[in-house]
Amino acid sequence: MKKKKKKENIVKNQIRWRLNGLFFMVFVLFSILILRLGVIQIIKGEAYAAQAKKTDVTPVSYSVPRGKIFDTNNKLVVYNISEKAIIYTPPKNPQPGELLELAKKLNTFLVMTDKEINKVTDRDLKDIWLLVHNNGTDLITKKEEKLYKQEKLNDKDLYKLKLNRIKESDLMAMDKNLAAIYRKLSSAIALTPTIIKNENVTDEEYAKVNENLENLPGVDVSTDWKRGRTYGETFWNMLGEVTSADEGLPAEKVDYYKAKGYELNDRVGKSYIEELYDGVLQGQKEIVKTVTDSNGNVVSTETVSEGKNGKDIVLTIDMEFQDQVEKIMQEELVSAIQKPHTDTLDTAFVVTMEPKTGRILAMSGKVYNRKSREFTDFTPGTFTYAFEQGSVVKGATVLTGYQTGVRDFGEIELDEIMRFKGSGTFSSYQVMNRINELEALERSSNVYMWKTAIEIMGGKYVPNGTLNINPKKIETIRYYFNQFGLGIPTGIGFGNETAGIKGTNPSTYFQIAIGQLDTYTPMQIAQYITTIANGGFRMKPQLVKGIREPNMNGNELGNVIDEIEPVVLNRVDMSEEMLKRVQQGFWLVTHGSKGTARGYFKDEPYNAAGKTGTSESYKNGVKTWNLSFAGYAPFNDPEIAIAVIVPNAYRDGYAQPHSAANIISQRVFRAYFDLNEKGRSTTK
């Protein structure tokens, strides 16, 4: 009995000790916890409090109105049209579910344009479907869930499975207008105002959104702009385009623009003048410092830099003259197409420049669609497309002959039928017998030019002999042609300008003398003829002559910021006497008794000089003829130079059915001088 009681006491003591030990451990643990809380609250409390109150500062850019474009007579050409806009400025971390709820609210007010609705993809619809249907959990099997838990499937795998299992009928039933709104909201950049709708926003839509702003977090009503044009389709292509708010920066140039401080959704010029002068027209964006707390909520905003409207530019183009040039081209193309054997004809190009400055007065390319009977503007083709230009280049051939010493003033050559051993015969359009270089220009002798080129290349024509030349010396001719702008970029400033194609067959190298080997653009021919007209100065073609401060009061020009001076690219090696000699030859072309253009210019009051051209070409495997003219007026004090080419004007094997290049040139000269007589100076 005593032993039993003693044993019970021992057990009780053990339990007591164990309980005491447990209580002690609990006490220690609580002490540690209390100590830890004390450290956090007392020692590190301020640091954690500061962390909780931590804010982020984000600079946000706001676009400003783009600069306007005026013509040389200060007439407004391109401007901004104000339009209503619904905008959204998202917080730092918007959640898809929140965006969908916002989209649903906006869907009761806004009808998106067909263009925006058509941008909605099946993928967009599927993403919205998943949001609406509990993230598509019902589309995943238990087996797949088990594999996911075993890490044999990942989130990406499950997402793909869900997308593939959404039925087409489910998508057909979805609201695409809602999807278009959600697409806009979800693509917005944090803290950056993004346009949800700015085309055809009705007064009712604008008012309803404005009335419900307190229930539409991040949404606001505003005004936006789009580009408008005073002269409609005139000079349309060269003025260029601006990206839309939806496009933002062009994908292929994102890195370039971002390096210059642009945001992804900034609108920029994407072609020609709008692109080339984007840095001027863009303006200085307003920079606002946006402060957000740790939850991404906006705490405050502060304007760091006031925005400034884009600067205005003044073109060298006279839009009234440009409009007339385009109408002339269209009328003469339609007229020429009525003639026989012209089924390959559909295009014409014109470039007019001030010889003394290089300023472009008007330029145009037109393509006619025979089926629709409509014209397409192809003005960039004046510097992106090169053609066999024909005899218009013969002035450069004569001058190269002078400079290389193979020709002298008044030197006689026999214009005959040239026969090469094993190569057939070559001749001018008629045998002219003994002529000098002025007569060769006046009557457009091919033979005189061929013989000149052969001698420059170290050869000498021998009847029935072989063509013995030094092929490397073709580069001598090209060197001098380059001085006039033939075969090299003109400097107009556009990256897609072509320098033309060089012929590579040595047996035809002598054809360079008559514009039948290398190809040249209409802009190069315009630069070439201005170089001869102004006494040997190759001028850079210019489309803009000035930059002005934006004028907030109407459409008047602001103060001058920069006057763009004419640029001389080079002075040709030829002497003044040589150039005057060729100028005289060009005057004979238009006024001489046997001049190839006398029928079009001899009786005109503006006293033009120039050179006609006809050259072989091909279109769709069919041999054709190009027609061209290059000239200037008045002869003694040139104000305007012109280059015209009508490629593939008619089929080979038929007599020339029309002279569209000469007629277009004649009418363009008349239009220019008629405008001047009316007091509308195109060189203002």
TrEMBL record:
It catalyses: Preferential cleavage: (Ac)2-L-Lys-D-Ala-|-D-Ala. Also transpeptidation of peptidyl-alanyl moieties that are N-acyl substituents of D-alanine. The chain crosses the membrane at residues 21-43. SUPFAM superfamilies: beta-lactamase/transpeptidase-like, Penicillin binding protein dimerisation domain. Belongs to the transpeptidase family. GO terms for molecular function: penicillin binding; peptidoglycan L,D-transpeptidase activity; serine-type D-Ala-D-Ala carboxypeptidase activity. It is an enzyme of class 3 (hydrolase). PANTHER family: PEPTIDOGLYCAN D,D-TRANSPEPTIDASE, PEPTIDOGLYCAN D,D-TRANSPEPTIDASE MRDA. Residues 64-301 form the Penicillin-binding protein dimerisation domain. Gene3D superfamilies: DD-peptidase/beta-lactamase superfamily, Penicillin-binding protein 2a (Domain 2), Penicillin-binding protein, N-terminal non-catalytic domain, head sub-domain. Its main location: membrane. Signal peptide: none annotated. It is a single-pass membrane protein. InterPro entries: Beta-lactam/transpept, Beta-lactam/transpept-like, PBP_dimer, PBP_dimer_sf, PCN-bd_Tpept. It comes from Neobacillus mesonae. The keyword Flavoprotein does not apply. The keyword Cell membrane applies. Pfam families: PBP_dimer, Transpeptidase. Keywords: Cell membrane, Cell shape, Cell wall biogenesis/degradation, Membrane, Peptidoglycan synthesis, Transmembrane, Transmembrane helix. One of its GO terms (biological process) is regulation of cell shape. It is found in: Cell membrane; Membrane. Residues 349-663 form the Penicillin-binding protein transpeptidase domain. GO terms for cellular component: plasma membrane. Pathway: Cell wall biogenesis; peptidoglycan biosynthesis. Its EC number is 3.4.16.4. This is serine-type D-Ala-D-Ala carboxypeptidase.
